């Protein structure tokens, strides 16, 4: 029997996602492909309700929910001793196209997702990943680790 009639907010506590979120804003310069620390990690203080991302760089921006999900086949992975990802490796990132002078006022890409962290990197080896991000945060602090080995297929 539970010692409390009202348990704390967990990842499936629906009312936390029904109210307006607490704002979290950053404009960051991420890493380039081929650089030893080539993935920029954003950790949120609590679980997100949604995330809006605008690519303000000159190259495509890879957005993923795990560090390994931001790599594609043939790229070097600094976490595995610098070895290349196998040819059959499945990439698990979303590519946000860059804004340019003609569409600088283009709307951001909106992800309606619950997560505690996201990973960003440039889609090429010469340009830095630059982005602006605004997230709506919930009051939920506990959330499972999102990995393929933890039952979340398609995230890396």
Could you characterize the architecture of this molecule?
It is a single chain. The chain is mainly β. The protein has a single domain, classed as Jelly Rolls, CATH 2.60.120. The chain has 1 helix and 10 strands. The chain has one helix at 15-18, and strands at residues 22-29, 40-43, 48-55, 61-64, 76-77, 83-84, 94-96, 109-111, 117-122, 130-137. Strands 1-10-3-8 form a 4-stranded antiparallel beta sheet, with no helix packed on it. The protein has a 4-stranded antiparallel beta sheet with strand order 2-9-4-7, with no helix packed on it. It has a two-stranded antiparallel sheet with strand order 5-6. The longest helix is centred in the first third of the chain and has 4 residues, at 15-18.
Look at the helices and sheets and give the structural class.
mainly beta
Radius of gyration from the alpha-carbon trace, in angstroms: 17 Å
Distance between the termini: 38 Å
Low-pLDDT runs = none
* Overall spatial form: flat
CATH topology: Jelly Rolls
Q: Count the strands?
A: 10
Helix and strand arrangement:
Layout: H1 15-18, E1 22-29, E2 40-43, E3 48-55, E4 61-64, E5 76-77, E6 83-84, E7 94-96, E8 109-111, E9 117-122, E10 130-137
Antiparallel strand pairs: 1-10, 2-9, 3-8, 3-10, 4-7, 4-9, 5-6
Salient structural properties:
mainly beta; 156 residues; 3% helix; 4-stranded antiparallel beta sheet; 31% strand; Jelly Rolls
